């Protein structure tokens, strides 16, 4: 059963990245994976459910990459900022751009309501709480700060992905985000 699900996710990920969600044919996708549409419906309910699974997989990979970035930093605060920078830079990657930042919101709605974003929010809240407790940043409500940082980074990534000049927009977004986040340590 897990092998079947993995085949479908792998085939969908490739199709969504190459042609986009709307143009990906479920018949071609399932046939390419050596499966039937029935397998897709059984495991994911529909094409939208399959997109959710693909997004969850990509999001997990992104989280692992970001953790490595954060671990390399000299301080926990710098690590958090470096992770946000890396997240925004990922908005230039074609697969992330198309599946996560363009098709995902168009099909699944507001990304801030996705389960993966809730996990990210909880982790950021935990980390800010620890930074405040350690005196690395001045006292601030951890959840409020996490929501503002996550919201700013998400909307900046969506802006980059939808832009006709993503590299130029990324530079603007990184500068503004850095200034915004650094305000937390100057309070």
Automatic annotation (TrEMBL):
PROSITE patterns: HTH_TETR_1 (PS01081), HTH_TETR_2 (PS50977). Keywords: DNA-binding. The keyword NAD does not apply. Gene3D superfamilies: Tetracycline Repressor, domain 2 (1.10.357.10). InterPro entries: DNA-bd_HTH_TetR-type_CS (IPR023772), Homeodomain-like_sf (IPR009057), HTH-type_TetR-like_transc_reg (IPR050109), HTH_TetR (IPR001647), Rv0078-like_C (IPR049484), Tet_transcr_reg_TetR-rel_C_sf (IPR036271). It comes from the Bacteria. Residues 2-62 form the HTH tetR-type domain. Residues 25-44 bind DNA. Pfam families: TetR_C_41, TetR_N. One of its GO terms (molecular function) is transcription cis-regulatory region binding. PANTHER family: HTH-TYPE TRANSCRIPTIONAL REGULATOR RUTR, HTH-TYPE TRANSCRIPTIONAL REGULATOR UIDR. This is TetR family transcriptional regulator. It comes from Methylobacterium platani.
């Amino acid at each position: 059963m897990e092998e079947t699900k993995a085949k479908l996710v792998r085939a969908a990920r490739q199709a969504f990245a190459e042609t986009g969600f709307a143009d990906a044919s479920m018949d071609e996708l399932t046939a390419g994976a050596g499966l039937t549409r029935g397998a897709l419906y059984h495991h994911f309910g529909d094409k939208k459910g399959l997109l959710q699974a693909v997004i969850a997989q990509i999001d997990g990979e992104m989280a692992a990459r970001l953790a490595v970035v954060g671990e390399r930093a000299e301080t926990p605060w710098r690590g958090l900022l470096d992770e946000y920078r890396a997240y925004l830079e990922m908005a230039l990657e074609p697969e992330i751009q198309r599946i996560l930042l363009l098709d995902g919101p168009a099909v699944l709605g507001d990304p801030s309501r996705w389960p993966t974003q809730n996990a990210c929010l909880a982790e950021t809240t935990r980390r800010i709480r620890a930074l405040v407790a350690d005196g690395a940043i001045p006292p601030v409500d951890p959840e409020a700060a996490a929501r503002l940082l996550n919201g700013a980074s998400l909307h900046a990534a969506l802006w980059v992905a939808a832009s006709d000049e993503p590299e130029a927009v990324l530079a603007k977004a990184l500068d503004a985000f850095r200034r915004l986040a650094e305000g937390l340590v100057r309070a």
